[in-house]
Amino acid sequence: MADALLELDSVVAGYGATHVLRNLSLKVFKGERLAVVGRNGVGKTTTLATVMGLTRQHSGAIRLNGQSIDRLPPHMRSQLGIGLVPQTRDIFPSLTVEENLLAGVRNGASIEEAYELFPRLKERRHNGGSKLSGGEQQMLAIARTLMGKPHIILLDEPLEGLAPVICEGLMEVFHALSTQGKTVVLVEQHTRLALDFADRVLILEQGAIVLDASAAELKANRDLLDRHVGVAVK
Amino acid sequence: ETIKVGVIATFSGPNAIWGKQFQEAIQVYVAQHGKEVAGNTVEFVYKDVGGPNPDASKAAAQELLIREGVKYLAGFDFTPNALAVAPLITQAKVPAVIFNSATSAINKQSEFFVRTSFTLWQVTVPAAHWAASNGAKKIVTAVSDYNPGVDAENAFVSAFEEKGGTVVEKIRMPLQTTDFAPFLQRIKSSGADTVFAFLPAGPATFAFTKAYNENGLKQAGINFIGTGETDESTLDALGDQAIGLTTAQHYSAVHDSELNKAFRAKHAEMFPKSTLNPASVGAYDGVHLIYKLIEAAGTDGSEAIEAAKGLSWESPRGPVSIDPASRHVIQNVYIRRVERDGSRLVNREFDVIESVPDLGFSR
Amino acid sequence: MTTGLQVRNVSKNFGGLRVARDITLDLPAGARTALIGPNGAGKTTFANLIIGALEPTSGSIYLDGHDISKLPEATRVGAGIAKTFQITNLFRSLSVRDNVRLPILERERRTASFLRRYDGDSAVEEEVEKTLAEFQLLPLADHLVRNLAYGQQRLVELALTLSLKPRILILDEPAAGVPSSDSHLIIDAIKRLPADLSVLIIEHDMELVFEVANRIIVLVNGTILVEGTPQEISQDPKVRELYLGAGHG
Amino acid sequence: MTVALSIVVDGIAYGMILFMISIGLSVTMGLMRIVNLAHGGFALLGGACAHVLTNSYGIPFIPALLVSVMAVVVLALPLERLVYRHIYRFSELEQVLATIGIVFIMIASVNLFLGSTLLPIRMPPVVSSPVDLGFKVLPLHRIIVILAGLAVVTALYLLVERTRFGIYLRASVDNQATAASLGIDTPKVYLAAFALGAALAAFGGILGAELLPIEAYYPLRYMVLFLIVVAVGGMGSIIGSFVAALSLGILDTAGRYLLPDIGTIFFFLAITAVLALRPNGLLVKSS
Amino acid sequence: MSANSTIAAARPQIRGAATFLPPIILLAGAFVAFWLFPYDLGFMTRILIMMVFVLSFDLILGYAGIATLGHAAMYGCGAYAAGLFAIHVSADPLLGLAIGAAAGALIALVSGLLLMRAHGLSLLMLSIAVTMVLQETASKARGITGGADGLTGISMGPVLGIFEFDFIGKTAFWYAFCVLFVILLVLRVVVASPFGLALRGIKDSPSRMRAIGTPLYRRKVAAYVLGGAIAGIAGALTAQITSLVSIEAFNFALSAEVMVMLVLGGAGRLYGALIGTLVFMTVHHIAAGIDPFNWLFVIGFMVLAVVFFLPEGLISLPKRLMRLD
Ligand SMILES: Nc1ncnc2c1ncn2[C@@H]1O[C@H](COP(=O)(O)OP(=O)(O)OP(=O)(O)O)[C@@H](O)[C@H]1O
Ligand SMILES: Nc1ncnc2c1ncn2[C@@H]1O[C@H](COP(=O)(O)OP(=O)(O)OP(=O)(O)O)[C@@H](O)[C@H]1O
Ligand SMILES: [Mg+2]
Ligand SMILES: [Mg+2]
């Protein structure tokens, strides 16, 4: 197998003194569609945030294209091509929609592309960021990250709060991105969606990976999934 | 025997200048006269109260009286600080020598207060008289709106009118004001030939005198008369624009006398970066008075107060004596004008009103 | 007398933007109504109008026949209307337990009282424990809410709101952020609600909507497009085009 | 009529000084959202430096001004790196405490080296000469301050509202982690903004020293005044601060012309009324 | 879940030994201080009064999260009211305290009706404005208040008709201590009550508080009035013990200092208020005694050190130390 694009090697990380990720190791390959699933609070968000450099990393290594990046501040990781769509959206409230997009623009991206993707945003372009509906904020968060033209896109539950039609549209967008050679990591609560989208699925439990399997394998073997994620499913 | 003297003053914060002036003058006096008085060693204990803070002043006095066993209290820059110790000194029968606070009424609060500085009435009334007899006909007063300012206004107005002058307007300026342009505009259009001003030393005086020049009052021929505005501690900061300002005060650092020259020389030797001002002489004479009282009465407070009454001596500011009725110093009041003397500005005395008592005590 | 909530000709403008246009609907006691619609259709705004966080530009809202359009939010909550927040809004530096305790105390009108301890009433305490257990929050009871994962916070959000025992309950995307494996906790909680309670649920998760709602209102651009049973709505071509997309059928 | 005109002219002249001395705080507190009680400290350091340069070394005013502003920036840079950078993350109360601590140290330093008396800044005499406007005499330096104020407000407005830097700054302040993960070099943005705030503080302190003379306790003495301008202007609004400063200047001046006896009470009651009606600042309608 | 055990809510229920221990320590501390420093009673009494004042601010800022810079308004009103009452009506100290409390509560109510609608910077400025107006009024009403010279002529009768205020300040010390003790006990009850919990809720999320049906404004006004009454008591104590009230009682610096002491000790913790006051005033006193010109350095560095190393205030020091090993 080719060398990993992004690699986490026995990473221990968390908030303050607490450890949320314990010895987490994973590899993401170029052009891959990877889904990360797991129950509430197992550390999915923390994993993505750690890749971005937003948590306290206690030990372990993170490599991008074989280069260690764990000493780099978040903005340099972003400049190396990692893009994160945060779960809490984190729209800048004192910026308008357009300024929110401008804040993410790099490498000559044009905000017209964003408006094409989400016409709704164009209608609300001069609205204050804090005055958007929940779904609009979600669209803006995704569009803003795409403005940075990342090579590897970390999506933390990007479909939450979006109308089903939009979700379908977005999944197509993510697909399209991956066919353009971008790497997509999707954290998703809805296992069905995750399985439909991904090539490979990681299951997280208490800050560690308990299962790493291809989507096809999991689809064929539902009880494997139930055992890990759906323990509480009736 | 060691006799301790407690000095309560402001040594920290924006008003630390008071404590500093006091302390320097005390040290100069001691350097000149030694610490031995009638077989006793005098020791000064300093307490900082950080500004006008009667609570701290009272607690400091308690500590000095009880722990240090001081037999005399001294210092006091702000009126409330002095007033706060009045019940204590009366109870303890310990004399308190006021080096600065200028409100007449303080001495009424306790039999044990003696004052070696000045009162507002004492310097303001001569200022008014001098102005009246030197061509001022119509006057406008501009004072900061707080007790000392109002005191000064009352003193000036009553004395000036007594001499037949007219007060065309009385302006009270908020204490926090730093922009005096509106008031100077009013002074200008009031038709007065002279303005009497009273402001607390520091930023207010600085901004007022600046505004006096910048708004063209000098050019318009409106004379300035004041009291403590050209205090030596801020005079250099005022700069050349202060030149020509006329004030009435009981002491100028360049008062021409042998005693003052010696005082100044010793002070310059010990504190080369510092200047003398009225607070210095208040403290210097205060220490002198305490020495005299120790000579006369030792540590007996009541006896000391009796001894103080009527005492007279030659001070760096000229002849002084303690008025038995008010326990306040009777002294000359000088009319001075700011002049340049080499590299510094000075208050040059050019007229004198002799032996002025506290004219505010009986009001 | 009419019971439940009546909304009559309510409109809301933000400057030139008309977010609610002449909406009229009833939420009778015992109803299980879902409000769906595209993003930015005005659903959250509508919920805020009912709860009193926003004031309508025109129109009125009645609770049991009384006009409540002018009452402040706190008074409406006292009268039995409650809502969860689409983006969790919790007492982040209080423990999970206190987050549940506080609304119960408020509901019992105790929070003006100085003299007894806040944990001194055994009936209240029992209810707190029961609520925590219901949402499987007991193990987290003493954690500060700000240290919980987002999905856990969603559960607290719901537990907190239900503790108010409202008569009209508005749920704004209660399941967002809750994994599909745990959404049964939410569905169960909704199903367990007293039968006479009127629930308005705003949600993009159609499985959940179809499971709990017996009536669905579709809001588009601030107006009601259609209203009907889940069956009718899922068949409606217009709704499919504007909202549901191809995946539902 | 002449009174009204005087009120307006004096008010604007005074208001512009208020603007100059508080604009640095509008940057650090309004835009960067740090409760920066040390604002006056930077003005003090700038002023003290200008005092030493003009008084002790006889350096002319303009070069002294520029050198002092630069000196404050040079001091602000390491201070930001070592201290302020951590303060950003603090809660508001902790920021109050931390910046009070810093301001105490600044005051004590000036006090140690220069004492607690006034620290005048020598200006060429022509600056304080009266200029006759026909209906009114105005000192030249006020005219200079008015021009400087107009220049600063324009430049700052363009910087914050019209440039990428402005967007980056506001984004970083809203959510530092998110801004960083979008590739914005937030530490550098903060550093630049902070240095700008300190430079403006020093600049304003020196230009305003004619009215609010520099002395060791300057930062505490005028703290309320700085805060009022930012509060009335509204957090984060440069134009708001400008309008607020001018309005407050005119208001205060009107009080002194018309109601001198209760000037202070009038001023604070008026501020109370403004803030009660417009709690988020003059230009922001209460929601 | 075990990863989270260390970040569990660190709010143990105040029960058992913990209920009685702190007041006992306080009481013992007072006796020890009284016995060890018999000459510093005046200064220690000032600390006690300040503790009452800072406690009152803790209720408002620490618990309800209402940040003001005008707490001296209530203190000053309490002081003037008690002073005038003593001069013109009765020299009984306890009655005077009641008057001080009433005056503090009244001004808190009147100003609170306006202030509690504001927040953030505008609240800070409004509270400052209220204090400034009061100070200026006191300064101008020279006939009643003595203006800048201060209100003189206060002489207090014996406490409870038995304990005369003495020269050394013993009575004043124990009087102030008893007041502090009672206030502390009252506040302990208040903060552990549903009202206290509601205040913490308000501090945390006002919008959520409204959404659970709390009449926010009324609760805040109530807290402000209660805090104001206690601040008024502190002011009254000063007036009675110093026998003089000056307009400095309304100083901005006082309001700011109270905030510093509270945050230094640990806002939102009653004992934090006490520790902050004790440490700030003692360090100030000692440092100013040693070097009045440069003590500000000491205070400055102390304050910075505390925010940087003990962000929850001095009260978190023991917890910190224990966690080290
Ligand atoms: N800011 C924080 N401070 C302290 N602990 C946190 C913080 N954020 C999350 N945690 C803890 O870290 C653990 C993992 O949280 P994380 O947000 O990564 O979970 P998640 O898998 O993304 O959950 P969800 O599906 O609910 O979003 C949780 O137990 C949570 O309590
Ligand atoms: N305070 C406001 N000022 C201006 N526009 C606003 C304000 N609040 C909401 N809007 C706009 O009103 C529209 C409706 O918003 P609302 O939050 O009600 O949508 P929603 O139906 O809940 O959408 P979603 O499903 O995405 O949560 C949006 O386009 C939003 O941008
Ligand atoms: Mg998550
Ligand atoms: Mg919504």
Task: Identify low-pLDDT runs of chain A.
Answer: none
Tell me, what's the shape of chain A? globular
CATH architecture grouping of the domain at 1-81 and 188-234 in chain A: 3-Layer(aba) Sandwich
Ions, cofactors, ligands: which are bound?
adenosine-5'-triphosphate, magnesium ion
Keywords (chain E): Cell membrane, Membrane, Transmembrane, Transmembrane helix
GO molecular function, one term (chain E): branched-chain amino acid transmembrane transporter activity
Subcellular location (chain E): Cell membrane
Protein name (chain E): Branched-chain amino acid ABC transporter permease
What would you say this structure looks like, in words?
- The complex is a heteropentamer of chains A (234), B (363), C (249), D (287) and E (325).
- Chain A has 234 residues and is α/β, with parallel strands linked by helices.
- In chain B, the strands form 2 sheets. In chain B, strands 7, 8, 9, 10, 11, 12, 13, 14 and 15 form a 9-stranded mixed sheet that branches. Chain B has a 6-stranded mixed sheet with strand order 2-3-1-4-5-6, with helices on both faces.
- The termini of chain B are far apart.
- The mean pLDDT of chain B is 90.
- The longest helix of chain B is centred in the last third of the chain and has 20 residues.
- Chain B has 363 residues and is α/β, with parallel strands linked by helices.
- Chain C has 249 residues and is of the alpha/beta class.
- In chain C, helix 3 crosses helix 4 and helix 3 packs parallel to helix 5.
- Chain C is globular.
- The termini of chain C are far apart.
- With 325 residues, chain E is mainly alpha-helical.
- Chain E has a domain of 211 residues.
- In chain E, 71% of the residues lie in helices and 0% in strands.
- Chain E contains 14 helices and no strands.
- In chain E, helix 2 packs across helix 12, helix 4 runs antiparallel to helix 10 and helix 12 packs antiparallel against helix 13.
- The chains are: A alpha/beta (234), B alpha/beta (363), C alpha/beta (249), D mainly alpha (287), E mainly alpha (325).
- Chains in contact: A-C, A-D, A-E, B-D, B-E, C-E, D-E.
- At the D-E interface, helix 3, helix 4, helix 10 and helix 12 of D face helix 5, helix 11 and helix 13 of E.
- One adenosine-5'-triphosphate sits at the interface of chains C and A.
